[in-house]
Amino acid sequence: MNIRNPFRKQLRSVIEWKEQDMNILFHRMATTTDEIKNSSKLIVAPGQGCLLVYDGKVKSVLTEQGTYELQSDNHPFITTLLNLAQNFESEHKMRFYFFRTAELVNVLWGTATPVKYMEPNYNIPVALGACGNFSVKIGDAETMFTTLLGSVSDYTARDVRELVSSRIVAPLTSFLAEKSYPYTEVDKHLLELSADLKARTTEELERLGFVLTDFRIDSVTFDESTLERIGKIADMTAEKRAASEVDLDYAGVQKLAALRDAVRTEGGLAGAGLQVGAGVQLAKEFFNTKSDANVSQEVAMPDAATRLTQLKQLFDAQLISEEEFTKKKNEILEKL
Questions:
Q1: Domain 104-222 adopts which CATH fold?
Q2: Which 3 state secondary structure label does DSSP give 319?
Q3: Neighbour-count burial of 304, counting CB atoms closer than 10 A to its CB (0-12 exposed, 13-18 middle, 19+ buried)
Q4: Is the pTM of this model over 0.85?
Q5: Which SUPFAM superfamilies match (predicted)?
Q6: Residue 315 CB: number of other CB atoms within 10 A?
Q7: Contacts of 151 (CB under 8 A, 6+ apart)
Q8: Are 197 and 176 in contact (CB under 8 A)?
Q9: What gap in Å lies between CA 32 and CA 114, rounded to an integer?
Q10: pLDDT digits (tens, 9 = 90+) for 320-334
Q11: Quick one: average pLDDT of 118-138?
Q12: At what angle do helices 278-287 and 250-264 cross, to 10 degrees?
């Protein structure tokens, strides 16, 4: 302080948080001086609270709206003159930390990194991300100030979102490891998952002075690697089931698909050096049919039906012509 102006700080102050930002939960009020004079006024508006720090200690937490008269050891004129040896600076400092008492609602959150667990149906490790929203309010301003804030001037909704998101990963990982929901059933358990995470996160936030009033998981997503692996397994499973419907094993279906691709490729079977009638030969190789000399021995109706079904599959796959199909079908029917 300039010694030529010893009376500059002698006026009583009126302290209030006039322009409250709805996204700020905790705010240190900047004043012209920390040497608040005795009998200065503090105004606490609706939806606000104020934490008073005097001489480095939390002296009071005000949560009721109204006007308060402040008491300090800084008396106008007298204090300044007594502190002449300290360049007119008083050792008695008072700071004001306003905080939001109203609830902060619909804060969006999301897991920063995917959570991994073992999927029971496919028996593979999967990575899941979750997102949703929550509502929170300050339950214990002094605890929040001493355990979380310290010298921070402003604590915002973004800070709360980062805090909650960081606290979600551990309980979410534990829950999924315990439940091991199948990939196709995770969405059906979002309410159960939300309730469990709310209970676990509430306990964590209470230690920091917060009250978690609502918590929801809106959706879960699996990472691209997981989706790709599950997609491949699902395709293979579908092909295997389809093969069993027509009495083929999975290897047979794969061979049939390879032959079908060869037909559709430019040049087709002809490009592979196959002549007219190649379809019949492929049928013999594919189904391991017996030579024409032995066909006369196969007169059982179930076997004939199987061969006709297999022959129709080759025709539908465009591996044999209609003429070849008709000829071979008649040969089988003649042996009945």
A1: Tetrahydropterin Synthase; Chain A (3.30.479)
A2: coil
A3: middle
A4: no
A5: Band 7/SPFH domain
A6: 19
A7: none
A8: no
A9: 48
A10: 778 888 888 888 777
A11: 90
A12: 160
In the structure encoding, which two tokens stand for residue 269, read together? 């079977």
Instruction: State the burial class of residue 37 (Cβ atoms within 10 Å of its Cβ: 0-12, 13-18, 19+).
Output: buried
Beta bridge partners of 97: 28, 51
Of the candidates 131, 94, 92, 87, the residue with the CA atom closest to the CA atom of residue 109: 131
Cα angle: 194, vertex 200, 202; to 5 degrees = 95
The C-alpha atoms of residue 323 and residue 327 are separated, in whole angstroms, by 6
The pair of structure tokens assigned to 156 is: 């915002």
Q: What is the pLDDT of residue 321?
A: 77
Query: CA 97 to CA 137: how far, in whole Å?
Result: 16
pLDDT in tens, 150-194: 778 899 999 999 998 888 888 888 888 888 888 888 989 999 999
Which of 14-18, 34-38, 215-219 shows the lowest per-residue confidence on average (mean pLDDT)?
Answer: 34-38
pLDDT digits (tens, 9 = 90+) for 60-86: 888 898 988 877 554 343 344 334 344
DSSP alpha helices (H): ranges in 180-248? Answer: 190-206, 224-245
Instruction: Determine contact, residues 8/2, Cβ cutoff 8 Å.
Output: yes
